[in-house]
Amino acid sequence: MTGVGGDPSAAVPTYRGSVDAADLGWTLTHEHLFVLFPELDREHPHPEWDPDAAVASAVRGLEELFDLGVRTVVDLTVPGLGRSAELVGRVARRVRVNIVAATGWYTDDVLPPYFRTHGPGRLVGGPDPLVEILRRDVVDGIGETGVRAGVLKAVTDAPGLTPDVVRVMEAAATVHHETGVPVTTHSNPALRNGLDQARFFLERGVPASHLVIGHSGDSTDLDYVLELVDTGATLGMDRFGMSHTGDDTTRIAMVAELVRRGYASQLVLSHDSAYFSRITPPSWRRTNAPHWTPDHLSRRVVPTLRDQGVDDAAIETMMIANPRRLLTAAPVGAVR
């Protein structure tokens, strides 16, 4: 079983600068502030998108989260989902919650054409720009913001391990080894492909202590989830309130069962929510997924877990100790 805790004296990068790991507190490990599509947004803006109003909404929401006890939010919006460090930075300067940035590339199939001509053995040649981008985001900061990413993200879904998906995953593994920054994923539990992700990263020496298989909480297959736990990786039970991908009653029961079996040290809880997403805009969410909000865990899920016998020690492990361990960089070059 993966150890918990992490070095409380270690520094974790956030939008407001480095924070002692001991001060991360209650952490939501898989959220989004704004999911955008710049090519559409520039010339075909969404009728519900107003950047100033969106920033104000995020500020209100994060301040409310702070009052509920949340201290850190990991924003897993990466290139491919319209990451805007400038917009998130506007929010971060006005809230008490720590916001951790992520890097990677969000694709479950193919990369943009630029990447097909750049890189070793390709038409233009040169170093792999994916590695260069991820490394720069982690080491130097995103764009001109100076905000350093604290998480690396990769995606697999129905298309499987396509050549471009593998390229993103290889880049994430490379930059992990150079920096110790954790790797987190988007998986499709219905396809059981979290096992492929775990195998891929563990074979490349990413330590299980710094690997999260995302969206594992959508699975209703206990045997599959237990296979994932056996890899040593942390499972992202991270879509609470997302009613179109699963039922919270089932998600809560799965978490309670895993805790009962002694696996609290390998679970993190979150929502995969957003204050604005072009994919599922606010009006759609209000009608179709009204509890898919970043306060849902605090207000409803955690109290229900307590009612099902999950004690405060297990909740603190999932919400505080495990995120602190994950966000504290691993020793460079560490292996499982």
TrEMBL record:
InterPro entries reported for this sequence: AryldialkylPase_Zn-BS (IPR017947), Metal_Hydrolase (IPR032466), Phosphotriesterase (IPR001559)
Cofactor: binding comment: Binds 2 divalent metal cations per subunit.
Cofactor: a divalent metal cation
Pfam families per record: PTE
Key words of the record: Hydrolase, Metal-binding
Binding site for Zn(2+) 1: 30, 32, 153, 272
Single GO term (MF): hydrolase activity, acting on ester bonds
Sequence positions bearing N6-carboxylysine: 153
Top-level taxon of origin: Bacteria
PROSITE patterns: PHOSPHOTRIESTERASE_1, PHOSPHOTRIESTERASE_2
Residues the entry annotates as binding Zn(2+) 2: 153, 186, 215
Similarity comment: Belongs to the metallo-dependent hydrolases superfamily. Phosphotriesterase family.
Protein name: Phosphotriesterase-related protein
Organism encoding this protein: Solicola gregarius
